[in-house]
Amino acid sequence: MLDDRYQLAFKAYPYQRSPDQDAKTPVRHPVVIMGGGPIGVATALDLGRQGIRAIVLDDHEGVGMGSRAICFAKRSLEIADRYGCAGPMLEKGVVWNVGKVFYEDRNVFEFNLLPEDGHKFPAFINMQQPYFEQFMIDRVRELQAKGAPIELRGKNRVDSVEMKEDHVVIHVMTLEGPYTIEADWLIGADGANSPLRGMLGLEFEGRVFQDSFLIADIKMKGDASFPTERWFWFEPPFKSGASTLLHKQPDDVWRIDFQIGWDVDRKEEMKEENIRARLDAMLGPDIEYEMVWSSIYTFQCKRMDRFREGRALFAGDSAHQVSPFGARGANSGMQDVDNLGWKLGLVLSSKAPETLLDSYDFERGHGADENILNSTRATDFITPKSEISKIFRNAVLNLSEKHAFARPLVNSGRLSVPCTYDGSSLNSVDGLNAGPLRTRPGSSCPDAPLADGFLLPELGDDFVILAIDAEAPGAFEQSGLNVRVVSVSSVDDPSGQLAGRYLGEAHSAVYLIRPDQHVAARFEHFCEASMRAALRRASGQEA
Amino acid sequence: MSDVNLTPNIDRPDDFYADLLGAHEGLSKEQSDALNARLILVLANHIGDSDVLRGALEAAKL
Q1: pLDDT digits (tens, 9 = 90+) for A400-429
Q2: Is the confidence at residue A511, as pLDDT, over 70?
Q3: What are the residues whose beta carbons fall under 8 Å from the beta carbon of A320, sequence distance 6 or more?
Q4: Interface membership of B41 toward A (CB under 8 Å)
Q5: Which of residues 1-30 of B touch A (CB under 8 A)?
Q6: Angle of helix A330-348 relative to helix A74-83, nearest 10 degrees?
Q7: Mutation target among B41, B42, B50 for the A interface, most CBs of A within 10 A
Q8: If you average pLDDT over every residue of chain A, what do you get?
Q9: Per the CB < 8 Å rule, is B37 touching A409?
Q10: Residues of chain A positioned with their CB less than 8 A from the CB of B33
Q11: Which A residues in the span 340-399 are in contact with B, Cβ-Cβ below 8 Å?
């Protein structure tokens, strides 16, 4: 009745009877989240920290097996830092900067991500997805101990929903039978095959890529090792795949992805002897290794038309899917949560109108489009679809060995960076004409060093006025929104990075920053009337 | 904004044309296709300007 559909890496939220199951009438909760994966748990953390009751329902009792998403981008770590769980991620994760590109038997070039200085977090860490989930669940447990109203209910499967004008009725199945609850808002964080999407009859169209990839996670035995770099082969001489990616993970585990074509016998390919044959051809006969996990995946690039349907909101893979090239899956889901959490919080506490949630659809829809575009382009480069596209692809690779100009054309995945919400109704007109483009309204705030620590942790997760070399009031209040004021001076950062990222040619700046650390408005000087208008706009109270 | 130059601009057109054919001499169809692709990429990089490149793509479609 509630059979596991997949194997667990570990149990994290075993079934426990909830008082809701004995209630005479269905209990109403502000937010119910379908899906206890990384996006569902992150949503619960975001809301729980705001004191909003969040119930996560999952039909399993813990974290699924397999390394799956292994590349976590700076922005995801910054979001996790707001939630209070980035420390263990950074400690566990592998930081890498060097990438090598091979074509046939040649290392045609290598690149260094050259991460920009003056950020608390690295550009990327590699880490098996179960760790990412575990550290967030650990944080949920810590917050629960302090009274945060978060509940993770394992073996609670949502079987059907009824959409009402101002709530959703949710029918849940458990090992002890069914029960019903209600939610003001239902979050569909139930993954790529989202049952909720099906229950609401929502279309999910997109482009299927006719290729499959075999993942093998292996642990080297003896002295054998590879450096901590990302190696990507186009048409490798060892013929184990049309392309191959090698990446380091924690615990001395290496992830290898072989592109194995569309018409494959999955059962046959998944046999250990056949996976080993591919690995041996790549690694050579003398390397000994242990196989940790393997899987075959295919992928699609698609998104829902709308991420909001009445009282249901979709986040993560349920709302959009991309190819794995560029690490835009879990990382974009984290940005969804980041965007949705504060908006839902304001709506639930009546500090913003419900229409604020439409900006979630606009902004994250924009993000999904950007991710799909990038990921489709990478896929077209990695797996050329026609004779001529292959001719150009190979021409680029051949030229890249000799000439630097061709290297930016090589696309083995454009790595995830946060999206700028250009055109969002929450943005005010840019009032800092001499300011840097990268911090224009809609941008995610880049980190910068301060005299003692970093900027982003100072911004926290409320609306904040950031005054740089500018006069500003001590605090600011409007329609129930308490805005903190953070005043900093560019001389606190002798490296000049703060000024470079936030002042540009301007002598002073006053930023209004949203709870998700995106810029809502910026001016050269503080002006109360302009700031109030910007705040009304950023909280959806004024178009 | 600049437009792709579609007026005669090559110093010695006959010499260039001969060099172009010369570069392909003795190549198989596959090698010629690859050479053409590399040549387009080299020239495109030299131009750089995306308006000119878009204009060139349009002009080439006839």
Answers
A1: 999 999 999 999 988 888 999 999 999 999
A2: yes
A3: A302, A303, A304, A332, A368, A371, A372
A4: yes
A5: none
A6: 40
A7: B41
A8: 94
A9: no
A10: 391
A11: 391-392, 394-396, 398-399
The residues near A448 (Cβ < 8 Å, ≥ 6 apart) are: A118, A119, A454, A455, A493, A497, A498, A501, A502
A104 interface with B at CB cutoff 8 Å: no
- CB-closest option in B34, B42, B45 to A394: B34
Q: What is the DSSP string of A150-176?
A: EEEETT-EEEEEEE-SS-EEEEEEETT
Instruction: State the DSSP H helix or E strand holding residue B14, giving kind and residue range, or none if neither.
Output: helix B13-24
pLDDT surpassing 70 at residue A498: yes
The amino acid present at A297, given as its one-letter code, is: Y
Tell me which DSSP letter residue A445 carries.
Answer: P
List beta partners, residue A63: A10
Distance from CA of A381 to the nearest CA of B (A): 15
Residue in chain A nearest B46 by alpha carbon? A405
Q: CB A395 to CB B41 under 8 A?
A: yes
Task: Kindly report the backbone phi and psi dihedral angles of residue A405, in degrees, each rounded to the nearest multiple of 5, phi listed first.
Answer: -60, -30
Put simply, the answer to whether A391 touches B33 (Cβ < 8 Å) is yes
The yes-or-no verdict on residue A1 having pLDDT over 80 is no
Q: List, in order of start, the domains of chain A with CATH numbers.
A: 8-87+123-203+302-371 (3.50.50.60), 437-538 (3.40.30.120)
Per-residue pLDDT, A223:
73
CB A235 within 8 A of CB A243: yes
Over its length of 62 residues, how does chain B's per-residue pLDDT go in tens digits?
Answer: 589 999 999 999 999 999 999 999 999 999 999 999 999 999 999 999 999 999 999 999 98
What pLDDT is stored for residue A543 in this prediction? Answer: 62
* CB-based contact B38 A395, cutoff 8 Å: yes
Question: A429 and chain B: CB distance < 8 Å anywhere?
Answer: no
> Can you give the pLDDT at residue B24?
98
- Domain residue ranges of chain B, discontinuous segments joined by +: 28-62
DSSP letter string, A174-206? ETTEEEEEEEEEEEE---TT-HHHHHTT----E
Whether the per-residue pLDDT at A204 is higher than 90: the answer is no
- Residues of A within 8 A of B40 (CB-CB) are 392, 395
Taking contacts as CB-CB distances below 8 angstroms, the residues of chain A near B53 are none
Check A391 against B42: CB less than 8 A apart: no
Phi, psi of A86 (to 5 degrees): -80, -25
Q: pLDDT band for position A391 (50/70/90)?
A: very high
Chain A positions in Cβ-Cβ contact with residue B42 (cut-off 8 Å)? 399, 403, 405
Q: Please name which of A31, A34, A35, A48 lies closest in space to residue A85, comparing C-alpha atoms.
A: A48
Answer whether B41 sits within 8 Å of A392, measured CB to CB. yes
Element counts in chain A: helices (H) and strands (E): 13, 29
Token duo for residue A135: 């550290």
Q: What is the mean pLDDT of residues A295-305?
A: 90
Q: How many residues does chain B have?
A: 62
For residue B1, what pLDDT is reported? 58
| Rounded Cα–Cα distance for residues A371 and A322 (Å) | 7
| Tens digits of residue pLDDT in A135-187 | 999 999 999 999 999 999 999 999 999 999 999 999 999 999 999 999 999 99
Judging by DSSP bridges, how do beta strands A289-297 and A453-454 pair with one another? unpaired
